[in-house]
Amino acid sequence: MKKNNKWLMFLILLISAITVGVSQLKIAAVMQDVAAALGVSTTQAALLMSVFTIAGIVLAIPGAAIQDKMGPKNLLLLLMACLAAGNVLGAVSGSFAVVVVSRIIEGISYAMIIMVGVTMINTWFADGGASTATGIFNTFAAVANFIAMNASIPIMKTMGLKSLWWVVAGLSALCLVLVAMFIQAPRAASEGGDNSKATIGEAMANLRVDVLSLAMFCIAFVLFGFITCYPQLFQGYYGLTAETANFYSSLNGLFGIPFCILCGVLVEKTGKPFVIAIIGAVGTALLCYTMPYLGPSTYIVHVLVSAICPGGLVMTSIFCLAPMLSKRPALIGYSMSIINMLYYIGVFASTPVIVGAASSSWKSASLIMTAAAAGAVVLLFVVASMGTKEASSTVK
């Protein structure tokens, strides 16, 4: 495959993933307005963030089998079609129940975009550069966060609340066309000499992948706690204006972009994703503990570190580790599906648990997040020490 062609296809894949991320986060910056428009409480409106991940929880495990049958390109086309359809339904509805359904439909795209992306990357870049490309791909959540936090309020004030859904629907349709026109379907693993059939059972028998999935649950819980709850922390706890709170929150995405890329390069150059992930998890635990003790001089520092540690160092390393720990190429999709399921469960639990705890005390919320981050540290140590006699034990 020509180098220019694979990078063009990678760019389209990245734009598609960013669009999925924007769709998920478009509500976070205007949650109080959404609650008022739908006649529900802010806590109920927070469920619209969580239900986005229901499809991910349900489809994570069968996702790899679906990809095997459809192929990565056709599955990506289906994901962008679901994203467009869900946003159109949300745009035309004024009912909370229907908007919940629309968010679940949108969430189908979120359910498998990471698995499709990692599979495509490890096929396109099989001859080298996969970790760097994975690091760049992992910026999609950071870019989406920056866009959503800065663009949602201006778009809402200019064109109305429902315009957020229409804008994302249009972007989804554009991505669908670009995928159809320019992305070439990666070769199946069987075409690369891996002819035995892969199964989810074989992937789940890999204990290192299983424990890594638990670490992903912990770090996803914390990361999306920061992404979705920073606006409430800065506005409700520290008394900043909505615009200022969203600006500070968006810096998580802005700072996360270079650090996700840097982490991918570090993994590529050092070959030590576990070391990088553990350092990031320790930093994340300290970050969580200090949430209620910030001041004007430390707001930006805290957001900067939140971009470096959970999303940049830990999550990028885990995405790089999944293919490395898979016994053979045909199992990469299934390994990612296991990790994704725990990722989506962590995201699903994050917002309602943290918002609920913060409603009584942000110190309680920070302790819950600290415990989750500490759990990630322990689990990463465990998986790093497992399987020392396996071929994959060369990964440090």
Automatic annotation (TrEMBL):
Keywords: Cell membrane, Membrane, Transmembrane, Transmembrane helix, Transport
Positions of the Major facilitator superfamily (MFS) profile domain: 9-390
Domain of life: Bacteria
Pfam families in alphabetical order: MFS_1
Membrane topology qualifier: Multi-pass membrane protein
GO molecular function annotations of the record: transmembrane transporter activity
InterPro entries xrefs: MFS, MFS_dom, MFS_Efflux_Transporters, MFS_trans_sf
GO cellular component terms listed in the entry, alphabetical order: plasma membrane
Name of this protein: MFS transporter
